[in-house]
Write a structure and sequence with these properties.
Blueprint lengths: L1 E9 L2 E7 L4 E5 L6 H11 L16 E8 L6 H6 L7 E8 L5 E5 L2 E3 L1 H9 L2 E4 L10 H12 L2 H47 L6 H13 L1 H16 L5 H15 L4 H30 L4 H21 L4 H67 L6 E13 L2 E10 L7 E2 H4 L2 H18 L4 E5 L7 H14 L5 E4 L3 H4 L4 E10 L2 E8 L2 H13 L5 H11 L1
Parallel strand pairs: 3-13, 3-14, 8-12, 12-13
Antiparallel strand pairs: 1-2, 1-4, 4-5, 5-6, 6-7, 9-10, 10-11, 14-15
Helix pairs in contact: 4-11, 5-11, 6-10, 7-9, 8-9, 11-13, 13-14, 16-17
Length: 550
């Protein structure tokens, strides 16, 4: 419930601080006193967009703060989901800077206007004459039926299945759209993939081919160099092998004269073995190296294929070509498997549709069961509000598609007079009749739902004094289980309140200010008497006021 409201520098309000308690609170005041200003300030806290013209003093910021007792509202999940600190006594603050910038806070944590609006809708239901149009909305009408049917669990189950069904439907449409586009590219991608698969692609292949190409392309020069090396090693007179043979013999004789010579001999023996091995290897190279124009052409063709592919795909490495080949392979495989994927997704969607329809059928059955009860409660309540012949025709029918609240369409027709034709509420009900119907529906909802604080803004407009008194009785009854506010011009309603506040204007020098105060018992008598007979208080008006309060 709303326990405290503070408004600073808003419209005609300079600095207002008001505390509220539970029960039925009535707010009265002369036309133009500022009741709408009070409601406008509260609406800003609940998420309404700010307007710079709202500032009383354009050089100061406007601050509106409301404190709510929310321990019975089951809002902890909301706070957790939005990373906010939960407090049983939650404070919402809205600031409008002189620059026009607006900021919102929940328990001192800055929040977006969207978060503020969503929280505000769960704290106060502000019912104005404009909101009476909700009555003509099928979704609102179904909400009333669902409250009577206690469909909260069933609606949650249906919503869960609907989310899954819609997600799968979206995935199926995306697959179909992707298939259309993929088919256009499939032939081209397949051609590119075949080109890459035909190429000798593996890591290191380019370096290997380039090395082979260099050797085959320079075979004569290589043979000449090998031959020169072989001659330097094996010349009978001055060849390195021949000279090392002599050196080996010298070292062998020296080795008998001491360990140092033995070590030297060993090293020379090693050098001889290594050089002799090199000479043999050069001999093998000389015998194994020969010109091979055909192999050279084959290698050149493979290299040119690699170079062409790199140029075509705008890359410089074989590794990049391998990655492109892998990506193309995936695209081609996906395209070729799309038909199977679509078929599988269609089967999955069909199963989900059956489950969703079953959940919708459960809702429909429970709704149909309570429609007669809703019809009776509405008609009985309206009889007490001066509409003895009011009747409703409420019928459910199968909708063309799954909606957010089920698969039901709804015909919600009304007739105010006996023998009259039934029609849609917005077409056949007057403003006063709509107000009484909405009040009746809200009172019925209060029996079945844990409604937040509700504020009726002149819901009694257009009704007689006798009927307004009965409307006040209904609001008073509602206040036994919730906090109820009524902004009213009628003394019959104001007298029903547990608490009575008056909004008034006062002039301070050249400035007019709006203020608000809670009335004492005697002040209530005077206020009601003025509402009954005007500023000139008569004994009869005072007596009538006391009678209303008693």
């Amino acid at each position: 419930m709303l326990v405290h409201l503070s408004i600073k520098n808003y419209a005609l309000i300079d600095n207002l601080n008001v505390a509220f308690t539970n029960g039925f609170t009535c707010i009265t005041g002369e036309t133009g006193a500022g009741k709408s200003i009070l409601l406008g300030g509260l609406s800003l806290v609940l998420g309404k967009r700010a307007d710079l013209s709202s500032l009383r003093d354009k050089d100061k910021k406007c601050v509106i703060e409301a404190e709510f007792q929310i321990d019975t509202y089951n809002l902890k999940p909301f706070f957790k989901d939005n990373d906010l600190d939960y407090e049983d006594r939650t404070i919402i603050r809205r600031e409008i800077q002189p620059s026009g910038k607006s900021r919102a806070f929940i328990n001192d944590s800055p929040v977006t206007l969207d978060i503020l609006t969503r929280l505000g809708s769960g704290l106060i239901d502000v019912h104005s004459q404009h909101q009476t149009l909700q009555l003509t909305d099928n979704d609102f009408q179904l909400k009333v039926i669902d409250a009577l049917a206690d469909n909260k669990t069933q609606l949650a189950d249906y919503a869960s299945k609907l989310r899954l069904y819609k997600a799968t439907s979206k995935e199926l449409l995306e697959l179909i759209d992707f298939q259309k586009e993929a088919n256009k590219e499939h032939d081209y991608n397949s051609f590119l993939l075949e080109e890459l698969q035909a190429a000798p692609l593996k890591l290191g292949v380019q370096e290997e081919l380039e090395e082979q190409y260099e050797q085959l392309n320079n075979v004569e020069n290589i043979l000449e160099l090998i031959s020169s090396g072989h001659q330097l090693l094996n010349d009978e007179q001055v060849g390195i092998v021949s000279l090392l043979t002599e050196l080996k013999q010298v070292a062998n004789r020296l080795s008998g004269f001491g360990s140092q010579y033995a070590d030297l001999n060993q090293r020379i023996q090693s050098v001889f073995i290594e050089v002799d091995d090199i000479a043999s290897e050069l001999q093998n190279y000389q015998e194994g190296t020969e010109a091979n124009p055909q192999l050279l052409e084959e290698i050149n063709t493979k290299l040119q294929q690699l170079y062409d592919l790199q140029k075509k795909h705008g890359v410089q490495e074989v590794s990049e070509l391998l990655q492109i080949r892998e990506e193309l392979s995936e695209k081609v495989n996906v395209t070729e498997n799309l038909e199977a994927d679509i078929e599988r997704k269609e089967k999955e969607l069909a199963v989900q549709k059956v489950a969703l329809q079953q959940a919708a059928d459960v809702l429909t059955a429970k709704r149909k069961k309570v429609v007669p009860d809703l019809k009776k409660q509405l008609e009985d309540s309206l009889k007490a509000l001066g509409m003895p012949s009011a009747t409703f025709k409420i019928e459910l029918f199968k909708a063309n598609d799954f909606k957010v609240n089920g698969a039901d369409g709804l015909t919600f027709l009304f007739s105010a007079n006996k023998g009259g034709d039934y029609g849609e509420l917005k077409k056949v009900a007057s403003g006063g009749e709509l107000s009484r119907i909405m009040l009746t529906i809200k009172s019925i909802l209060a029996k079945y739902e844990n409604l937040p604080t509700i504020m009726f803004d002149e819901i009694d407009t257009g009704v007689s004094g006798e009927i307004s008194g009965k409307m006040g009785d209904i609001m008073q009854a509602m206040s036994k289980s919730m906090q109820v506010f009524s902004i009213t011009h009628l003394p019959q309603v104001a007298s029903k309140g547990d608490h009575h506040f008056k909004v008034y204007k006062q002039e301070e020098g050249a400035v007019t200010k709006t203020n608000m105060k809670q009335l004492s018992s005697e002040e209530r008598v005077v206020e009601l008497a003025e509402m009954l007979g005007g500023k000139e208080l008569s004994d009869s008006a005072m007596a009538h006021a006391r009678q209303l309060l008693n």
